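tokens incoming
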């Protein structure tokens, strides 16, 4: 549609989220015409993509936004048929595990039925679209083996995870029954300075910044013993793209293969600015989940061997990157902290090419 060197058209649901914003940048860098679905909101919800959005009246805009919602089939069908995307990335979701216990029905509608609505729209396509489903390591829940790989059975432990299992199996179903090029990424936790503030990594890095800025005295958390495999989101969207470029559709674990506890996360984050977390962190029962996922550790061998994908940013560097950005946001100078001073700022949000070319960010 009007851009000389355009090779492909992509449709992204969840484009205003952490992953959607990085993926949109990546695809634009690769010459794609990108279409994103945004939800109508009474306040602006596009802050993560404002830096890549141009006035639609300008010619050759690489990014077009459309109102839509995964709970609304007619809108989804109409968008798919109007845009006729070569690739569809389904990243939209009520993605907070704890919230899913309070809103199970909406979570199932957006996560499980949302994926099915898209798959149904694509089943009837008279072109050959490729479909990516944003699956989650939460599906492994009470883990059946360590580390978890593509063949590990699922044991979901939250309404969110149950809904993701439905979406995963539906994606396999549409691939096998209808021959759709439909793939699942089973992504382990991935974080960045764009991570939502209520997920534990960002809550901790923001919390430390608020304490240093004099805006808070304590940080209230739930279960510190949970173990997670945390990677860098900007690298994980590259895996999504690679999954859809492979010659055959399939399902892939995307993970670092390293596991750390929330306690370690807190210890490292406070330690980077010379503080002892025990002086600041308090337990608050409201952050404890009715059923917890105690540990997650991924084996991304298949992604490495078939897609050439590998994680590059380690746990400590990821925490340092997030903390440095939050300190700057709260007006705290990073110069006194050896491990933070040299870190490239993500504010204003930088393009993915320059972020990925940095490799590692801190010592
Ligand atoms: P996120 O930051 O929470 O973004 C979620 C996106 O979905 C936002 O753009 C949100 O729009 C949109 N959305 C929510 N409900 C919707 C609905 N009913 N219809 C259409 N869009 C809707 O999540 P993320 O971290 O980028 O994750 C992206 C996807 O990967 C999600 O499906 C998540 O479940 C999955 N995932 C994430 C991780 C991780 O560690 N980050 C790991 C595995 C899987 P608003 O901005 O308007 O709220
Ligand atoms: O940061 P979290 O909320 O992420 P969680 O539950 O692992 O889910 C994230 O990763 C999934 C991939 O595995 C995604 F599918 C999902 O969409 C989301 O992006 O919590 C991590 C751990 C949990 O064990 C939680 O109980 O941290 C523990 N935790 C302890 N205190 C806390 C807190 N989590 C949050 N959000 N807030 C706390 O105060």
């Amino acid at each position: 549609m009007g851009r000389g060197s355009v090779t492909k058209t992509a449709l992204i649901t969840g484009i205003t989220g952490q992953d959607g914003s990085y993926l949109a940048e990546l695809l634009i860098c690769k010459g794609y015409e990108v279409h994103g679905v945004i939800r109508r909101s009474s306040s602006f919800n596009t802050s993560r993509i404002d830096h890549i959005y141009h006035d639609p009246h300008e010619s050759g805009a690489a990014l077009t936004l459309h109102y839509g919602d995964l709970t609304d089939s007619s809108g989804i069908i109409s968008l798919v048929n109007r845009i006729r995307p070569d690739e569809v990335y389904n990243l939209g979701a009520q993605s907070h595990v704890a919230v899913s216990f309070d809103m199970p029905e909406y979570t199932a509608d957006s996560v499980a039925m949302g994926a099915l609505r898209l798959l149904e729209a694509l089943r009837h396509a008279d072109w050959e679209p490729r479909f990516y489903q944003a699956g989650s390591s939460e599906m492994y829940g009470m883990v059946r083996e360590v580390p978890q790989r593509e063949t590990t059975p699922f044991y979901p432990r939250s309404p969110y995870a149950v809904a993701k299992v439905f979406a995963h199996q539906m994606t396999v179903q549409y691939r096998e029954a209808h021959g759709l090029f439909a793939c699942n990424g089973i992504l382990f936790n991935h974080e960045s300075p764009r991570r939502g503030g209520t997920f534990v990594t960002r809550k901790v890095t923001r919390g430390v910044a608020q304490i240093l800025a004099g805006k808070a005295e304590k940080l209230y958390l739930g279960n510190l013993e949970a173990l997670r495999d945390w990677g860098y989101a900007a690298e994980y969207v590259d895996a999504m793209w690679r999954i859809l470029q492979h010659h055959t559709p399939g399902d892939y674990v995307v993970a670092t293969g390293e596991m750390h506890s929330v306690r370690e996360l807190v210890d490292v984050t406070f330690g980077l600015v010379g503080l002892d977390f025990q002086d600041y962190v308090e337990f608050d029962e409201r952050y404890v989940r009715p059923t917890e996922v105690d540990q997650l550790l991924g084996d991304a061998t298949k992604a490495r061997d078939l897609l050439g994908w590998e994680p590059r940013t380690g746990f400590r560097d990821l925490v340092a990157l997030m903390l440095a950005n939050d300190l700057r946001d709260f007006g705290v100078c990073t110069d006194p902290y050896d491990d933070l001073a040299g870190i490239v700022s993500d504010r204003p949000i930088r393009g993915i090419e320059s972020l990925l070319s940095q490799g590692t960010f801190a010592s």
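note: Residues 21 and 313 are 19 Å apart (CA to CA).
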